[in-house]
Amino acid sequence: MQRDSYLPLPQSTIGEARCQVADAGRTERVTASSPAIDVMTDLKRVAAATIGPDTPLPDANQAMILRGVRSLFVVDGDRALLGVVTATDLLGEMPVQLAAQRGGIPADLSVRDVMTPIDRVEAVHLEDVMKAEVGHVAATLKRSGRQHLLVVQEDRDGTPMIRGLFSASQVARQLGVAMPTGLIASTFAEIEAALAA
User: Do the bridges between strand 81-86 and strand 116-117 make them parallel or antiparallel, or are there none, so unpaired?
Assistant: First the structure.
């Protein structure tokens, strides 16, 4: 179709009816039997939060704060996935212990030192997600004991790519669960209670 053959879309006035503005921060409520895809962050729609492996830990923490996330994809210059780093990786005991072993301080460490390398990153396939429900996602997150679960899909040439991710806090928010400010176990207990309701 040539560009000059497009017809304009029909328009009308909104009128006097009550009208609200969409809130991007507001999430739709789901139940255990809702489609799993409803709670997945789709990286074709939302830009992935990435960071380089040589980034100092304080800078990585600041990047998480600025993006409002608790995990980052660690990528090389070609955006190939090297691993994943979480807020727990940055702020937990591992950086303190590793720095002590090296005779330094945690601020001397880089993301590469504390990330989970790609060969240890677990994921689920998008095809399985498309057939699953929210309850399946919650069970998978609980079994892994992690706050995040990656979703992979093969691109046209068969190369795996990260297509999306599930976050325990996002699942809880969409279930209408108040997020506890503590251990992962508390989060999953709250999610389980909401799923059982």
Answer: antiparallel
pLDDT tens, residue by residue, 3-39: 678 887 778 767 766 776 766 666 678 888 999 999 9
AA letter at 144: S
Distances from the Cα of 49 to the Cα of 6, 7, 64, 93, 168, angstroms: 37, 38, 8, 23, 17
Residue 173's alpha-carbon distances to 166, 178, 196, in angstroms, are: 12, 7, 16
- Side-chain-side CA neighbours of 172 within 13 Å: the count stands at 22
Give, as one character, the DSSP assignment of residue 103.
T
What are the strands of the beta sheet with 71-75, ordered from one edge? 50-51, 71-75, 81-86, 116-117
pLDDT digits (tens, 9 = 90+) for 35-78: 999 999 999 999 999 999 999 999 999 999 999 888 999 999 99
Residue 41 β-bridge partners: 165
**Which positions ≥6 away from 20 have C-beta within 8 Å?**
none
Q: Of the candidates 117, 108, 126, which has an alpha carbon nearest to the alpha carbon of residue 35?
A: 126
Catalogue all structural domains in the chain, each as residue range(s) with its CATH number: 29-196 (3.10.580.10)
Given a contact cutoff of 8 angstroms between Cβ atoms, the answer to whether 135 and 142 are in contact is no
Q: Are 179 and 190 in contact (CB under 8 A)?
A: yes
The structure's pTM equals 0.76
Helix (H, G, I), strand (E, B) or coil at 56: strand
